[in-house]
Design goal:
The protein has eleven helices and no strands. By secondary structure, the chain is mainly α. Helix 4 packs across helix 9 and helix 4 packs parallel to helix 11.
Length: 295
């Protein structure tokens, strides 16, 4: 709810300063100006963006008022999941791993880590990578290139809504000016009115410029910045998973591969080493081959 509080503070500060100077709140209520600005903004968004991106913007807007998606606990759950998968692959072999990733919903390996893989895209990313790796026909270097390409594409797609909203924020002051110019044109057509009436009409016209600027820099631009941070956090989560998968594919032991993933987590939310080791010990999938204690 912090983003909503921030937007409310912006409006409260602007309105408070206006009222302190004895401004008339009624003059700010200009439905025609709002229609011009918001209608133009909506039309521009429809003209500039495909339906798929508009749908993604709508989905992403629902995230900005929620709790942070990637916390220390969620990263820790991801590390435990990777450790269990790597231990399983080392002990049971590629055939057993292939069966698990072909049906992750029915596999005890992934069912035990549902919280870590609540993100369906993350589950697909892990399973697709393990499926390719288990075939044994792709060199680790080439696998890492494949992962980098996948992550780069995801990042471009994720930041599409940010780009669209930033473009809208840049356009809103212009739409506000267009509304103001139309208001001035109407005022100039009423030169026979008294100076007081003319002043009111010009003031009403300038509300368009004010509204466009306020919406651009007080609402749309901060929302775009918030979405950018949300998408960046998700990209970082995938980068950490990629670090673990790529390290294991290069032949590193499960414990070292997990540590590579842990080091890819931002420091402010990175689980500490001892806590990660203990969580992996408690959360590893046990198999008959040998103990699942982290080595």
């Amino acid at each position: 709810m912090i983003p909503l509080a921030g937007i409310l503070i912006v409006f409260a500060a602007v309105a408070g300063g206006y009222l302190i100077e004895s401004g008339d709140p009624g003059i700010l209520a200009q439905p025609a100006e709002l229609l011009i600005i918001l209608g133009s903004a909506l039309g521009a968004m429809l003209a500039a963006n495909p339906i798929s991106r508009l749908a993604r913007i709508a989905r992403t807007l629902g995230k900005i008022f929620g709790a942070p998606g990637y916390t220390t606990d969620r990263y820790l759950a991801m590390l435990v999941m990777l450790h269990s998968v790597f231990q399983f692959a080392r002990r049971q072999g590629g055939s057993a791993l292939e069966n698990a990733v072909d049906n992750p919903g029915g596999s005890p390996l992934f069912a035990a880590h549902a919280n870590a893989l609540a993100n369906r895209e993350a589950l697909d990313f892990v399973c697709d990578t393990l499926r390719i790796s288990s075939l044994g026909t792709v060199a680790p270097y080439h696998l890492e290139i494949m992962l980098d390409n996948d992550l780069e594409l995801r990042r471009r797609e994720a930041f599409g809504p940010v780009e669209s909203l930033e473009t809208l924020a840049d356009s809103l002051p212009g739409f506000g000016i267009a509304a103001a110019v139309l208001g001035v044109i109407l005022a100039m057509g009423s030169l026979k009115d008294s100076p007081l009436q003319m002043g009111i009409k010009i003031a009403s016209a300038l509300v368009g410029t004010f509204t466009g600027i306020l919406l651009a820099y007080g609402v749309v631009s901060p929302v775009a910045a918030r979405i950018a941070k949300i998408e960046d956090a998700e990209s970082t989560y995938f980068e950490a998973i990629k670090a673990g998968l790529a390290s294991f594919a290069k032949g590193m032991p499960p414990s070292i591969a997990v540590e590579c993933a842990r080091r890819a987590i931002p420091t402010e939310i990175r689980p500490d080493f001892e806590k990660t080791v203990e969580a992996c010990r408690r959360g590893a999938i046990h198999t008959p081959a040998k103990s699942s204690v982290l080595k």
